[in-house]
Amino acid sequence: xxxxxxxxxxRLETALAxxxxxxxxxxxxxxxxxxxxxxxxxxxxxxxxxxxxxxWSIEQAxxxxxxxxxxxxxxxxxxxxxxxxxxxxxxxxxxxQLAKTKNKGNEIEEHLFxxxxxxxxxxxxxxxxxxLGKEIGLxxxxxxxxxxxxxxxxxxxxxxxxxxxxxVRGVPFFVIDRKYGISGAQPxxxxxxxxxxxxxxxx
Length: 203
Hints:
By secondary structure, this protein is mainly α. The chain contains nine helices and two strands. A hairpin with a 3-residue loop joins strand 1 (about 175) and strand 2 (about 180-185).
């Protein structure tokens, strides 16, 4: 649900597309929750929510979202914050953990990002998550089970603890070859340079 994560994803993908050894790169998604206590509120505008938690005015929140929307456009993404639904993301993270076991982590991340930022879908709604899971080839029964399975909740917690141990305080945060950290939606060139450096050191 962090807008910079979707932008960072696109910039990494653009850098990877030009990386000559991209067939040797594996992306592993990790769970992280900036606000695990967030309560889903389908009636609350995202601008109002940001104003409340940041201490901003509604106008300041709108200005920030307009700025981020323009950043997204630069990498080919369409954000519609007027439709974005304030939602707890824990269930979505459980779905991500399930998708990872099927080598579909990238696919579900893309669908979840688009659902939240572009389509205004509630990513805390079980029906919505089932539909998104089915779109990438998951079975409805396994998605419903994953949303209640303590094993997937445990994997979410494990990822969050791992992030805390290495000092992650915000997202997006990329770790390349368990050695180089990239914090934030950095320019494509940063990803390109770091990929090349990591590859040269190991080959």
